[in-house]
Amino acid sequence: MSARLRYSTICSLDGYVADADGGFDWAVPDEEVLAAINAGMREVTTSLHGRRIYELMHVWETDPAAAAQSPESAVSAQLWRRPDKHVFSTTLDAVRTERTTLHRTFDPAEIARMKAAGAGVWMIDGPTLAAHALRAGLVDQVEVINAPALVGGGLPAFPDGIRNALRLTGVHRFDNGMTCQTYDVEGGLEKVT
Q1: Which pTM value belongs to this model?
Q2: How far apart are CA 63 and CA 139, in angstroms?
Q3: Residue 144 burial by CB count (10 A; 0-12/13-18/19+): exposed, middle or buried?
Q4: What is the pLDDT of residues 40-66, one digit of tens each?
Q5: Are strands 141-147 and 4-12 parallel, antiparallel or unpaired?
Q6: CB environment 147-159: b (16+ within 10 A), e (fewer)
């Protein structure tokens, strides 16, 4: 049995995880959205992160103030510690969290082998790293939380030049106007030029 790889992201309605200035204050989840994110994280056994996302997220383990922000933040901090983590970076000297392995390159063949030997739900976090996994056909599920904002440009949630058939498996609307759509990836990867 193989693990299923989920790409999960929060983005603007026009598809950006950060605006042209690198900001994402328009996408900060409230308690209801964070509770839904936490529910999904409960089943994650392994997570894959690029450097930028890892540097943003490791506070759940390294900074007690992050967990103290709210009840769901405390849950997020607990859930962050559970899975094995793989960080892909050519610039990090070392990782700052437990159960974390640093990789210098993202080797799709190696990830496919790891995934085939794994179990449960794996999560890939960060659009740059996810682009490599999407291009390699490694992603089994896509979860998009859309913030009710148009930002007009920035860091896209999805790379240009790929096409996948997706099957909608879930939709949820939050009171703050955010929505979550979950899709299973169907069919083979088609690269478009």
Answers
A1: 0.93
A2: 31
A3: middle
A4: 999 999 999 999 999 999 999 999 999
A5: parallel
A6: bebebeebbbbbe
> Locate tokens 């979950």: which residue?
182
pLDDT average, residue stretch 5-26: 97
Tokens of 124: 């890939």
Conformational region of residue 153, where left means phi above 0, alpha means psi within -120 to 50, and beta covers everything else = left
Distance of CA 142 to the CA centre of its chain: 9
pLDDT digits (tens, 9 = 90+) for 146-192: 999 999 999 999 999 988 889 999 999 999 999 999 999 996 655 66
**Torsion angle in degrees (nearest 10) through CA of 25, 95, 72, 11:** 30
Among 92, 160, 167, 157, residue whose Cα is nearest residue 130: 157
Of the chain, the end-to-end C-alpha distance in Å amounts to 34
pLDDT for 187 equals 67
Rounded to whole angstroms, the Cα distance separating 69 from 51 reads 24
Residue 157 dihedral angles phi and psi, to the nearest 5°: -70, -25
Four-CA torsion 121, 12, 177, 139, nearest 10 degrees: -20
Domain 4-191 has CATH 3.40.50.720: no
Using alpha carbons only, give the angle 79, 84, 87 rounded to the nearest 5 degrees. Answer: 105
